[in-house]
Amino acid sequence: MTERSFSFARGRVVAALVGAGLLLSACQGGSPTPGNSPSASSASASPSATPSPSPSAKYVPASAKGKAQNVPVPVKPALADQNSKAGLEAFTKYWFALLDYGYATGDLKTWISLTGPNCEFCSELKEAIDSVYSSKEWMTGGKLTTPSVEAKWKAGAATQGVAVQVIQAEIKYFNAKGPVDRELTPESNSGVALIAEFRGGAWKAISLGHLG
């Protein structure tokens, strides 16, 4: 990714992260569904943590027949608690891996614990994912990867920024009866800015924005 300045264009940031279909309407009005996005809400609540699969359990991705099973829980690298450029980049990759885990399972407990309460767009992401799993539905596809993570490190700064390339596969929605009448979320490949703060020996994501 080329080096670019960070901006927080409210009408574009959420779409840049998860694809236009999932949350773009959050900035334009509309009903609170994943295809027609929710309004921003507090990130204080989260589904109960999903039990970690046993080492011998086989991972089964979500399909039209059922939810994902035995989804591997992201492991936090020791470097992610280091107050350094490398530490921030490790934290960022872990943070997005936890978000990907949330898409697959509905479990965002650990992700929320590493996210500041005033991150409005993070709250919108949580609200959209919660709306699916709380309705006894699930998603197929939606794999989220971050092939490029580059911290814009400034020594001594109170907060640090990270430029992130976020790729997400197309998402479809199902329940026990079959396909759900929600607009699918198309695949996306976009750049976002994550702002993080190091406090109490750990990083926390405090804001998300479009990389522009």
Describe this structure in words.
The protein is of the alpha+beta class and 212 residues long. The protein has a single domain, classed as Roll (Nuclear Transport Factor 2, Chain: A). It is 24% helix and 24% strand. The chain has five helices and seven strands. The strands form two sheets. The protein has a four-stranded antiparallel sheet. The chain has a three-stranded antiparallel sheet with strand order 1-4-5. The longest helix is centred in the middle third of the chain and has 21 residues. The N terminus is likely disordered.
Largest sheet: 4 strands, antiparallel
Query: Which class in CATH terms?
Result: Alpha Beta
* Total count of domains: 1
Q: What is the tally of beta strands?
A: 7
**What is the assembly state of the chains in this entry?**
single chain
In whole angstroms, the N-to-C terminal distance is: 12 Å
Order of helices and strands: HHHHHEEEEEEE
CATH A-level architecture: Roll
- Overall geometry: elongated
The overall pLDDT average reads: 79
